């Protein structure tokens, strides 16, 4: 079961407040805070789509480049010994460290994807 919805390459979280009897969420993986809410699932999907469209329109109006949920780059932190071992393995295999990490993450995702 997924607690996310997707629209135009954006991902929205989905939560439910029993106290308020409302579904709510936000656009994930961007720095801007964009939220939405509704009282049923169909309205929630519509509210999410409207929030994405409003966000894109607002960015255009103010001349700001909309954030993309995933740019394909990120920084990772690891123990220096692991960094050294990974660098050594990548050198031995004739790859750069980035290629080694991409291959390792790809293999992990394939093995653990639902």
Automatic annotation (TrEMBL):
Pfam hit, one: HicB
GO BP, sorted A to Z: regulation of DNA-templated transcription
InterPro entries given in the database record: Ribbon_hlx_hlx, TTHA1013/TTHA0281-like, Uncharacterised_HicB
Name this protein carries in UniProt: Type II toxin-antitoxin system HicB family antitoxin
Organism: Pontibacter cellulosilyticus
